[in-house]
Write a structure and sequence with these properties.
Layout lengths: L1 H20 L5 E6 L17 H5 L9 E6 L4 E5 L5 H11 L7 E5 L5 H4 L15 E5 L1 H9 L3 H6 L3 E5 L6 E3 L2 E7 L10 E6 L4 E5 L12 H6 L3 E5 L21 H7 L5 H4 L2 E4 L13 H8 L3 E2 L5 E3 L1
Parallel strand pairs: 3-4, 4-5, 5-6, 10-11, 11-12, 12-13
Antiparallel strand pairs: 1-2, 1-14, 2-3, 7-8, 8-9, 9-10
């Protein structure tokens, strides 16, 4: 009986996804919301991680978005995470590959949760053929010049498409524009993306230093879009016992909420916190912090959310 229930549940999910994807309106589909190392994190056996080790259903993947365009029958990924196999399956259920071929992968930077999933495109795994990978100049150089990523180029598993700061990429009724943001730049620059559809616009900034380190007023930028998927790696100072969190560049959620306090309720509702560390209480829907964030008018990103464009 259990097997039958699972199969029926999968069919219902598939039917629901197909109905949604048959609408002509493009949309963002959230595939993952956790910081690079996922949840639970490797070698974390503390109280907050143990539920994920004991129950596989509670495990969460690194931050990734899909951009799906039913009118053009295509889909894009934002980030190639270490959880790529499971996230590709999620995406297959949502927008099957025979109807929506993968038309490209946009990368933000060269930290492990954002590009290492490219390994699954190689000949030891999918043996993909010329999947377009959109990358900024330093990111492109890093991939092309360092193994094992250079092998993906050599064997034509991927085809790197060069991006430039502020240069729009157009795909019919959709466009994607990278913009530089301050972050650790050991191997590549870091970008966020502006994603524009026929009716609505989103920004995606999974990693950035403190808002004060950027020459853009993030509160004013939020006013110009319909969705702002923003770095929420840590909730507040003190989240990592024994570490000086003043040396961590990410804007804490508590700081972002203070920064956005003068936004109208309508503009606060545009904010979707994403890219949460395994220690972040926002990963728990029932935590006091999650309830507080939602009561203040903000959103917490979760897998399976669809944002129409």
């Amino acid at each position: 009986m259990r097997k039958i229930r699972i199969q029926l549940g999968s069919l219902v999910c598939l039917w629901s996804a197909l109905i949604y994807a048959q609408n002509d309106d493009p949309y963002i589909y959230v595939l993952g919301v956790v910081q690079d190392a996922g949840y639970p994190q490797a070698a974390c056996y503390k109280l907050h991680c143990m539920p994920g080790w004991k129950d596989v259903r509670l495990r969460r993947g690194a931050t990734s978005l899909a951009l799906i365009d039913p009118l053009a029958n295509r889909k894009f990924l934002f980030e190639a995470t270490p959880n790529l196999p499971a996230q590709l399956y999620q995406l297959e259920v949502e927008a099957p590959g025979d109807q929506f071929p993968l038309s490209g992968i946009f990368l933000t930077h060269a930290h492990i949760g954002h590009y290492t999933g490219l390994m699954f495109l190689g000949h030891e795994a999918m043996d993909a053929s010329n999947i377009p990978v959109y990358a900024m100049p330093r990111m492109e150089t890093f991939l092309a010049g360092n193994g094992p990523w250079s092998q993906l180029v050599k064997f034509q598993n991927i085809s790197i498409i060069s991006l430039r700061n502020g240069q729009k990429q157009e795909f019919g009724q959709l466009s994607v524009t990278p913009f530089l943001v301050p972050h650790r730049h050991e191997y590549s620059e870091t970008v966020g993306y502006r994603i524009e559809g026929p009716d609505k616009t989103a920004i995606f900034i999974p990693d950035i230093n403190k808002w004060s380190a950027w020459n853009t007023d993030i509160a004013e930028l939020v006013k110009t879009v319909d969705y702002a998927l923003l770095d929420a790696t840590f909730y507040a100072a003190g989240e990592l016992p024994g570490r000086d969190m003043s040396r961590i560049g990410h804007p804490f959620v508590s700081e972002s909420m203070e920064h956005f306090k003068d936004l109208s309720p309508e503009d606060r509702n545009k904010v979707w916190f994403i890219h949460m560390n395994h220690t972040n209480p926002l990963l728990n829907d029932d935590s006091e912090e999650s309830r507080y964030v939602r009561s203040a008018g903000f959103n917490i990103a979760k897998e399976g959310i669809r944002l129409p464009l």
